[in-house]
Amino acid sequence: MSSSTSSRRDARRNHARLLDEARQLFAERGIDAPLDELAARAGVGAGTVYRHFANRDALVREIYDAAVAELHDLAPEILGAQTAWRSVELYVERLGAWVAESPFLPAVMRRVAELDPSYRPGAEFEEVVNGLVARAQSEGALRDDVTAVDLGILVDMLGSLGQYGREYLPFWRRQLTIVLDGLRARPGTTPMPAPAQAFAAFHDMSHAKGPKPAPR
Hints:
Layout: H1 3-29, H2 35-42, H3 46-52, H4 56-79, H5 84-100, H6 105-115, H7 126-138, H8 148-159, H9 173-183, H10 199-206
Helix pairs in contact: 1-2, 4-5, 4-6, 5-7, 5-8
């Protein structure tokens, strides 16, 4: 093996380790945690951090893009379910768990929205989720007044259980069961009290939620 091949392999390994440790650090201390601490956790020098990420914002942006890629990875299982209702169940379950296990995500989404408001890769999922909702409703399984935005809000609500820490994760399926029962079409459901929010408005809101950080 040549020295250049070995160096590239080491660089890839360091890059992956830095991303993993950054997610953990940001979950514990927020996305403005010292990058020197990130270097120490990853077992590399501070210079190595900046060789891989020009600055903190570049690191946050890469974590965001990796999260979008993870959503794409979940799609085949969700969309390939035998029924549209099962797809709805998997959508809420898998994404709710994903958010709960990634408590750094809201701050990362907020920072990327501040850095580049025109960067909206999450909007690409609108058509897919709208189609999923329509199919489940045509099956008669999903209540007719539910929208893709409703599913997104419910994912966020379930994901917020991650604030309690990993100690609660074994119990979060209790709330998942309540949510799924509430989505089912059945006689006697209470009418929705207001029209649904537009998907584009929800997308922008979800990237700006939470307290605004102090000026940097």
